[in-house]
Amino acid sequence: MAKQYKTLGEDIWKNRVETINAELFIFTYGSIVAQLVKDFEDYEQVNKQLEKMGYNIGVRLIEDFLSRSGWGRCTDFKETMEVISKIGFKMFLNIAPTVTNWSTDSKVCSLILDENPLNDFVELPLDTQHKLWYSNILCGVLRGALEMVQMQIEANFISCVLQGDDISEIRVQFIRHLQEELPNADD
Known about the structure:
about 190 residues, alpha+beta, Muramoyl-pentapeptide Carboxypeptidase, domain 2, 5 helices, 4 strands, NO_sig/Golgi_transp_ligand-bd, endoplasmic reticulum
């Protein structure tokens, strides 16, 4: 099944996605992070702002993902993470993280990013060691997109090559399925 996801992700990337200049995207993102660091002067606040920005992007990105991929409802959290990894990440960033380190109850996993275009041309100061998660916007995108398909998750970076770690890893935890809430009837 993972091969099917990978093939679909590559097909969508090649044939159904308008791309932008990667360097422009990377430098624009870097400018945003630099401005947040300057504005907040507190890495924890910068991380929160990046996650919040990502959440807002994910809320909107899911519609584009669903329409371009034609993907329906996933059967479980494991399938959801494979689809996100092989199709979603490929579609928007041209990467395919590895889904691994599953918990015994299949509610927690890791996304290992062998490559991360957001990290290109970036060198963090030493004082940011495990304080600033430069690509934290990705955690917000995951949370926002999955919330729109009624899945509440928590996503956090636990290691990053920019911090001197061997790998970049996002830990994703399924919390619960959300109930679709209908708006209150106007009387």
